[in-house]
Structures are given as C-alpha cells and as structure tokens.
Amino acid sequence: MRDQDIVGAYLSRLHAEISANRDGEVATYIPELGRVDPDKFGICAVTIDGQVYCTGDWDSEVSIQSVSKPFMYGAALSEHGRERVLEHVGVEPTGEMFNAIVLDEATNRPFNPMVNAGAIATSELMTLDDRSDSTARMLDIMSRFAGRDLDIDTSVFRSEHDTGHRNRAIAYMMLNTAMIRRAPEDVLDLYFKQCAVLVNCRDLAVMAATLAAHGRNPMTGDRVIAPDNVRDVLSVMASCGMYDYAGQWGFDVGLPAKSGVSGLIGAVVPGQLGLAVFSPRLDAVGNSVRGMEVCRRFAEDFGLHSFSERTDLRSVIRREYRSGEIQSRNVRDGREIDIIRRDATEFAVLDLQGPLFFGAMERVARRVGALVSKGVREIALDFRRVALVDTGGLALFVRLVDALGGTGVTLHLAEVRYRDSLSGLVDLVTDDADGVLKIVDDVDGALADYENRVIAKAGLTQETQKLALSDHAVFEGLDAGEIAQLQSIAGTLSFAPGEVMLKAGDDAKAFLTVARGTASVTVPLGPERARRVASIGPGQAIGEMALLDGGKRSANIVADGPVLAYIFSVESIRALSDDSPRIMEKILGNMVLSLTHRLRRTNDELSAME
Ligand code: GLU
Fold first, then answer.
1. Strands 378-385, 62-63: parallel, antiparallel or unpaired by DSSP?
2. Which H helix or E strand runs over 44?
3. 4 has a pLDDT exceeding 70
4. What is the pLDDT of residue 543?
5. Residue 457's closest CA among 560, 331, 340?
6. Helix or strand or coil: residue 413?
7. Which residues on adjacent β-strands are paired with residue 56?
8. Has residue 358 got a pLDDT over 80?
9. Could you tell me if the CB of 195 is within 6 A of ligand 1?
10. What is the pLDDT of residues 458-495, one digit of tens each?
C-alpha cells in the first residue's frame, strides 16, 4: 500500500481539486471579517474514536460565528431542559434570511435556534447576572466541546459589538414581546462573544465529532452534553443549519451541519465522525462555497447521506438449523444418535450477525415466531457475530420475550456474557418473570444439554456404567493380552463437576481416557473468560498428544459432571511399548484416525458456513 493514511490522502486530493474554485465573496458586514485572507482553505475530519485527519490551512484560527449556535443550544438544553428551552425558541425552519427581524406571530417565539433571533434567545438562557461569569461559562462549554481552551478574538468582538445594530434590533424586539427579559446589552454581549470564539478546523471537527459521538468528546472522553440533547441539536442542524439553503442541503448532502459567515462549516455524521471546513468566500446565501463542495463530495463519495442505503438486512440471520440436522460436539453412541435424529426436533439455532437495530431485530422476532408456530420449543440465538443491539432493537426484543411468556418456549442467549455492547440483553434476564430467557456460554453447550434431556426422556440412562478399556477409541484393535498389560499400568481418577482435569500450560506427561461422564475443552480468552471448543465423552482420550510431543497442554479440560477417567503416564506407556511395540503402533494409528475425523468434521463445518 502506497499511502497508509487513506482518509488523509483522500482529503488532500479533495482539497487540491476544490482549491481552484475562487467563487464567492468574503463577508464584510462585520468589518473585521473582511480582513481575512480569502484563499485560506482547511479541512479536518475527526472520528468518534479520536482519529484526526487534517489538510490545508486547518490550523488557521477564525471566529466561529454562527457555528457557535448549535453548541450553545445544546448547552441551553442541558442547563434548562427541553421544555423550558422550547418556550423560548421553536424548531421550525424559516424561509427568511438568518438575520431576519421576524418572530412567530402566534407565540412570539423566534422560529429556531440557528437563526439570529433564536440564537439570541438561546444566549439569554445562558446569560448570568455577571457578564464575566456568562463569558467564562460560555468559553468553558465551547472548550469542552473542542477539547482545548478556546479564546475570544477581541477585535472581532469589538467590531461586531460596534456595528451589530440589526442584532440589537432583534434583541429589543424580543424584549418588547417579553420573549427575553434580561437587559439586551447583556444578552448581546454574550452572543457577540460566542460568535467571536476563535477556532481552527481541528477544533471544529472535534466539536462536531463530539456531537457525532452523542455528546462525548472523543479526544478527552468528557461527556459534554447528554445524548438526548445531542439528538435535539442534530435535528435542528439538519433542518435549519445552512441558512436558506437548508432544504437543498438536506436533499443533496443529507448531513446535519451548521455554517457561519466567517467561512466555516461543521458537519456531523452521527455515530461516525465530525467534519470541518474553512474557506472564507461565501455564496449569496452566506455558505462557504468550497466548504459546501467538500461536504457534498465527501458525503457522496462515501454514501454518508442520512437516507442513503447502508445495511443489508437480508443477512441478519446468517445460518439456521435444527438440532436433528447438526449435533452437538458431545460424543454419542449409536443408540443415542438414533434417538437424537428421531426425537430432537424442537430445538433450533439462529446464528445472527451485524448490528441488531429495530429493522434487523424485527426479522429475528418474525423468524422466532415462525419457528414457534412450527412446534419449536427452544431456540438458541447465537450473538457471537453481533456487535451491538441498539435501544430500538432491545425494545423490540423485550416485546418478543413478553409475547413468549407463558408459552413454555425458551430462548437461549449464547455468546452474550462479558460483552459490554450486549449487556442490555443480559440485564433482561432479571425482569424475565416467565423464565423465557436463559443465558448460555455457547450454542454447543445448549444443544448438548437439550440432546441429553431428549435421550433421558427416551428412557436411555447415559453414562451409568464405567467403560471398559477395550472400548476406548485409542485402544481399538488391541487384543485381550495387550489390554490387560495396559490395565496394569492404568490409574483411575475421579473428578467432581466443574473440576479442572488438565490445565493449559502444564507439562504434558500423561494422558487420560474418559470412562464415565463428559468433559469440556475450553480455551482461555482472558482472566475470566473461556471458550468451550469441544466436548469429550466416554471412550475418548484427553491430552493424548503428550505421546507425540510431550510439550505443554494447550487447553483446559473441565469436568461437566462427575467424571471417571483412566490415567496413563507417557513414561509407562513407552516402557510397555519397548516389550510390545504393537501397542504403541496401534495407539498412534488410532490417534491419526481420530485426527482425520476431526479434520473432516471441521471441513464439513466450514463448507456448511459458505
Ligand atoms: N455574528 C454573526 C451575526 O449575528 C453571525 C452570523 C453568522 O455567522 O451567520 O451577524
């Protein structure tokens, strides 16, 4: 790969291509803004896990202007709650200019917090008795969004303070209708200062990324505002953020964004990243010409429009099978297998994949319903390949569990333990009064348990007697004399349920064969976690590889229930083989045979997954 920074390289190329565009005019109605270099052009993207991609004049500082509005709106929502804020400012897009002197006739409210009237009303909500306290709090909020200490450009502030009479008119008009009650000059002081906060593209991209991350700053980890407040902010950004162009913007680009007269645009791809562009030349509406082009291209090239197709729901159920078709890894004899094939018909497995939000969960719920109506009583849902269940998916799942209450149907939730993003599912078990849900380590364990119940129901009591040595797979083909020799060197061990029979990392100096009971092979995944990879039953050997390499144990073997096993030390088997070499030959031959079977089984499984 030539350039590993593929997003950075993409943004640089985009920057080079769009640099040629010199259309538009720099805003001069605030005199100080007219002094900027019109050719400045910076782009920065920040992901919700804090990866930063910057190019061009990304570090040029400029006053944030109207891009401060969504952040102050978020702060007001956080401070006063939605209801109180809605009394002071609506959420309706206007067809008017951003600085129009109009209020909603019925309510006297400004239309929305992205136009000046609404932003001034928001500023009033954030004004304190002392001007310097208001300023300090505003700077603190902006700085927390940006993840570094921001400051005010005093000459821009002065310039707007001395010339911003239109905004003064708006404030006095709102005082007239009692929409604001504080002294307009105090409110305007805060408003002009919030517009004069200096940011570069990186700052603004982090601020936008904080919104993308539902209010948590990806660089500092600071939770600046709550996810519900972010949702409200993004909603008004989506409908009102781009001046009179908001409708067309939503149509073309489809991302919540806010622009300002200094030439900044901040755009949010919720759940993914924040994007900031700075280029001072504006179109007739007041949006940065190059900034709009960057957002439009970026959204188009990567399908980021809110309504573009993103997921393929068809694949949420990756695989489905019934217990008769695929059996657990437990070792069974012929009679047991016959019973399973005949009777084990009421257990199904759904192997799920992808994020489970409402639409995907609806498919799962529908499939569960269909299986239940066909007589399936137990369904194992395999969440191994599910990265997350969102609140919508969870809400629907709760209804599914409710609907199954009293039907006697059980849902086994597999691979959900120790997974933070799936903890919502685990928590449901606490409220599951009807006992519909059962958390299981993995599908195989649930399936094996079901098979055991089916076998028991058919009247076959398993594992009651101790298996003779001659019935063990590794000793197949040995004659009575050879078995007797083995018997003489065999020890017997019994294990309690849950007891560790062999431990990963230990020296492999002996091997076991199971005479009664079953054991699980588990591979440790962390200090508390383990994955069950296989099950071993009567007649099977454990740790027999010791005969070949004598290395370290690679897995843990844990007794499922009471287990009785024979133990053979490698040394004694070797000594035996010195006199009767046929014993070792047969054992090794049987090991090769069993490895071949395991390999075949793995191959079959792999091709079943295709
Ligand atoms: N401070 C500017 C004003 O109120 C902000 C304008 C803007 O960026 O839209 O006029």
1. unpaired
2. strand 42-47
3. no
4. 83
5. 340
6. strand
7. 42
8. yes
9. yes
10. 886 655 557 788 888 888 888 888 888 888 888 888 89
Within 10 angstroms of residue 245's Cβ, the number of other Cβ atoms is 19
- pTM higher than 0.85: no
Q: Where are the domains of the chain?
A: 3-301, 313-457, 469-609
Res. 206 pLDDT band, cuts 50 70 90 = very high
Residue at token pair 């990879």: 533
**C-alpha span between 286 and 100 (Å, rounded):** 13
Q: Does domain 469-609 have CATH number 3.40.190.10?
A: no
Cβ of 98 closer than 6 Å to ligand 1, yes or no, is yes
66 is catalytic: yes
Confidence of residue 138 (pLDDT cuts 50, 70, 90): very high
The SS3 assignment for 323 reads coil
Instruction: Provide the pLDDT for residue 465.
Output: 59
Q: Does the beta carbon of 160 sit less than 6 angstroms from any atom of ligand 1?
A: yes
Can you give the C-alpha Rg of the chain in angstroms? Answer: 34
Average pLDDT over residues 118-127: 97
The C-alpha atoms of residue 443 and residue 317 are separated, in whole angstroms, by 15
Residue with tokens 């030959």: 585
Range in 323-332, 333-342, 397-406 with the lowest mean pLDDT: 323-332
Per-chain mean pLDDT for the chain? 90
Write down the pLDDT at residue 67.
Answer: 98
Q: Is the alpha carbon torsion for 418, 422, 424, 429 positive or negative?
A: negative
Position in ligand 1 atom list of the atom nearest CA 261 = 8
Q: What percentage of the chain exceeds 70 in pLDDT?
A: 96
Q: How would you label 170-190 residue by residue, b for 16+ Cβ within 10 Å and e otherwise?
A: bbebbbeeebbebebebbbbb
pLDDT band at 1 (very low <50, low <70, confident <90, very high): very low
Amino acid at 178: A
Residue 137 alpha carbon to ligand 1 centre in Å: 20
Give the tokens for residue 278: 């700075």
Helical H segments across 216-273, by residue range: 227-240, 246-252
Q: What's the CA gap between 172 and 176, in Å, rounded?
A: 6
Task: With residue 402 as reference, give the H or E element that holds it.
Answer: helix 391-404
The phi and psi torsions of 459 (rounded to 5 degrees) equal 90, 5
Closest listed residue to residue 503, CA positions, set 144, 575, 495, 101? 495
Amino acid 605: pLDDT: 61
Determine which residue's CA is closest to atom 6 belonging to ligand 1. 66
**CATH fold of 3-301:** Beta-lactamase (3.40.710)
State which of 68, 99, 120 you would mutate to test the pocket of ligand 1, scoring each by most atoms of that ligand within 8 A of its C-beta. Answer: 99
Q: Which CATH class is domain 313-457?
A: alpha beta
Residue 98 C-alpha to ligand 1 middle, in angstroms? 8
Give tens-digit pLDDT for 282-319. Answer: 999 999 999 999 999 999 999 899 888 776 666 899 99
Known catalytic membership, residue 261 = yes
510 phi, psi to nearest 5 deg: -150, 165
User: How far is the centre of ligand 1, averaged over its atoms, from the C-alpha of 174 (Å)?
Assistant: 18
If one counts every other C-beta atom within 10 angstroms of the C-beta of residue 479, the result is: 12
Q: CA-CA distances (angstroms) from residue 523 to 155, 414, 505, 528, 531?
A: 65, 17, 11, 11, 5
Distance between CA atoms of 250 and 236, rounded to whole angstroms?
12
Distance in Å, CA 282 to ligand 1 centroid:
13
- Residues forming a β-bridge with 385: 353
Exposure string (b/e) for 24-42, b if CB count within 10 Å is 16 or more? Answer: bebbeebebbeebeeebbb
Gap between the Cα atoms of 180 and 235, Å rounded: 24
